[in-house]
Write a structure and sequence with these properties.
This is Tetratricopeptide repeat protein. This protein is mainly alpha-helical. It contains 16 helices and no strands. The chain has three domains: 135 residues, Tetratricopeptide repeat domain (Serine Threonine Protein Phosphatase 5, Tetratricopeptide repeat); 96 residues, Alpha Horseshoe (Serine Threonine Protein Phosphatase 5, Tetratricopeptide repeat), CATH 1.25.40.10; 83 residues, no CATH class. The protein is globular. The termini are far apart.
Length: 334
């Protein structure tokens, strides 16, 4: 079954899930200008918000999702309101505002219950699951991910199936069950390929590359990342591209190629900063500090930088990342 972009609504529903973000933004702006009803305008503003969010234009994305919500509320359309709240919650997570993300996504799920679109509810719950997962709540979010996977399979939503599989695979990878994680990333890649979901395929390839690297096949891991990078560039997936590059740094670091890893991490810090993605930026900085430490940086400086990152992760509510910074301190300085 072919994957669809459920967030492109109304007259924009015909857009391919693989449409470049520039194309989506152009089409959404045209529909917004030509809209004759509040529902049409809300759908166009939602698409503008999502394109801008994924391009890293966060201030405009913020204005657009709020405009979409106001328009949908005026039209008394709970489904459109839920989609707007989902967009706002997803943006809040991207910007590292996790309590706000939880509030908006919870409101999105509750509002979707008042409408008729099960997919809107599923996306809102998926947003809550992903927010908890990136904060390190693997046990609590695993159950929700698995529930959403079952619903997505039953509803015939291949794109959402791919997302859920990748989320569950990430949890198994973090818990040390690499075989299960690899199997799930591989299934996600297959479903994404069959459904022509290039975004989902690119994220799955990143996960497969990670596990391939952990098994010692460095060159194959780098090849997989290059394959995924091509898709990210074609579709202008700025966040996915930055995370792809961060994984390339991880692969090089594990291989002991510290100078190359340092160079990649340094560039990736700038990529994340450009799209206002503080979690990714901090994780790339962690890789950069570790690479410099392995390259002979002064222990006192390494200790200082790791301390700053540990506090930053802790204050942001990124508990797993804080643990990573603590482990790095132990490995590099004791």
């Amino acid at each position: 079954m072919r994957a669809k972009a459920a967030e492109y609504r109304g007259g924009l529903a015909a857009l391919s899930v693989n449409a470049s973000l520039d194309e989506v933004l152009d089409e959404a702006e045209r529909h917004d200008a030509a809209a004759t009803t509040a529902v049409e305008r809300a759908g166009a503003q939602l698409a503008i918000a999502e394109a801008c969010r994924r391009l890293g234009r966060v201030e405009r994305a913020e204005r657009a999702w709020r405009a979409s919500y106001r328009t949908a509320r005026e039209a008394t359309d709970p489904t459109a309101m839920a989609w707007a709240l989902w967009s706002g919650g997803t943006l809040a997570r991207q910007r590292g505002r996790y309590p706000l993300a939880h509030r908006l996504l919870s409101r999105a799920a509750a509002t979707a219950e008042l409408g008729t679109d099960r997919v809107a509810r599923g996306y809102a719950l998926a947003g809550l699951a992903e927010t908890g997962r990136v904060q390190g709540d693997f046990t609590g979010t695993l159950r929700l991910h698995e529930q959403l996977l079952a619903e997505a399979r039953a509803d015939g939503q291949p794109r959402h199936v791919v997302w859920a599989l990748e989320g569950i695979a990430q949890i198994h990878r973090h818990n040390g069950d690499h075989d299960t994680a690899l199997a799930m990333f591989t299934e996600a890649c297959r479903i994404a390929t069959e459904g022509d979901d290039q975004r989902g395929r690119a994220w799955a390839l990143r996960g497969i590359a990670d596990l391939t690297s952990l098994r010692g096949d460095v060159e194959r891991a780098l090849e997989l990342l290059s394959d995924a990078e091509e898709t990210c560039r074609e579709m202008r997936l700025e966040a996915a591209l930055a995370y792809n590059h961060k994984m390339r740094g991880n692969v090089l670091y594990r291989a002991g190629r510290y100078a190359e890893a340092e160079q990649v991490y340094r560039a990736t810090v700038d990529e994340f900063a450009h799209i206002s993605e503080p979690r990714g930026e901090a994780l790339a900085r962690l890789g950069l500090v570790k690479s410099r430490a392995r390259g002979g940086a002064a222990p006192a400086k390494v200790d200082e930088e790791l301390g700053v990152l540990h506090r930053r992760f802790t204050e942001s509510g990124l508990h797993h990342a804080a643990d990573m910074a603590g482990k790095a301190r132990h490995e590099l300085l004791t």
